[in-house]
Amino acid sequence: MSDKRIVFLHAFPCTGEMWAPQVAAVQEAGWQALAPDLPGFGAEPLPNAAPDLDVVADHVIADLDVVNTGPWVIAGVSLGGYVAMNLMRRFPKRVSAVLLCDTKATADGDQARANRERLASICEAPGADVLRVLEQAVLPGLVGTTTHEERSEVAERVRGWLASADGRSVAWYQRAMAARPDSTGILTGFTAPSLVLWGAEDALSPAEEQSLMTRALPDVREVVVPRVGHLANVEAPEIVSAAIVDFLDEVESGS
Asked: In angstroms, rounded to a whole number, what is the distance separating the alpha carbons of residues 14 and 154?
C-alpha cells in the first residue's frame, strides 16, 4: 500500500487528544496520522445545522481534503465508529481500510433514542450543570470496572474531557446519534481490510454487538482487550497501539 494515511475519530464527548498514544505509534511506524476534533468539541464550533452525522462526516472529509483527497484508513471509537460507518456508506472511495473500536453497527432502539432525547433536553436546559449530568449518566459506562477500581487517573482524565463539553454540543450529538441508520449492510458490502477491537468490559457496545460486526465484515480481524471498557484506546493505550500497528502492517503488505 503506497498511501499510508490514517485518521482517528474520537468518542463522545471527548476530543482528538484521546488518540494521542496511537497517533504517536503509527507515526513511528511511518504513517501519516490525523486526529481532528469533531465539530462542537475542542476548537471546532458546533454546526449550524440540524443534528445529523452526515454533517460530521462532511466535516471530516473537508479536513482530509486539506491534506490529501485520496483514500484513508478510517479509525473510529464509539461515536467515531458511527462517523466511520457514515464515511463507508457515503464516501466509499475515500476508505482504504477501517478500524471500528468499541462501537456498533446497529441503530438505536426506541428506549435508547428516548434516553438520548432525555439527556439532550437536560443538557441544553438553561443553567444545566452539564458536567454533573455527564458524570452521572455517561462517565460510569465510558471506562471499565477495572479502570474505575485500579486506574482512577484514567477515569479522571476522561472526566476532564467531559468537563469541557458544552451542553448544546452534547444535545446536538445525542440527537444525531439517535437518528443514525443501521449500518450492518454497509459492513457486509465492505471488502477492504477491517479491524474490530473492543474492551472486554465494555457495557455500552457489548460483545454481541461486536460479533454482529465481525460476522458482517468480509475481511476482518478482531481484538478483545482484557480489563478495559468502552474507551479501550485510553484505558490500555499500549495494547491498542500495538494492535493497530500490526493491522496497518497487514494493510500495507496486502496480506
From this structure: 13
pLDDT 10s digits, 86-139 = 999 999 999 999 999 999 999 999 999 999 999 999 999 999 999 999 999 999
The rounded Cα 164 to chain-centroid distance in angstroms is: 18
DSSP string, 89-124: HH-GGGEEEEEEES--SSPP-HHHHHHHHHHHHHHH
Compute the mean pLDDT over every residue in the chain, rounded to the nearest whole number: 96
Contact criterion met (CB below 8 Å) for 77 and 17? no
Q: d(Cα 28, Cα 26) in Å, to the nearest integer? A: 5
pLDDT of the residue at 2: 64
Q: What does the pLDDT look like over 42-74, one tens digit per residue?
A: 888 999 999 999 999 999 999 999 999 999 999
Q: Cell numbers of 167, please?
A: 451542553
Interatomic CA distance for residues 61 and 53, integer angstroms: 12
**Rounded to whole angstroms, how far apart are CA atoms 159 and 155?**
6
Beta strands in the chain (DSSP E): 5-9, 32-34, 72-77, 95-101, 194-199, 220-225
Residue-range domains of the chain with CATH? 5-107+181-253 (3.40.50.1820)
- 182 DSSP assignment: P
Q: CA torsion angle for 16, 17, 20, 23 (degrees, to 10)?
A: 20
Residue bearing cell 462517523: 83
Query: Is 1 a residue whose pLDDT tops 60?
Result: no
Sheet with 220-225, side-by-side order of all strands? 32-34, 5-9, 72-77, 95-101, 194-199, 220-225
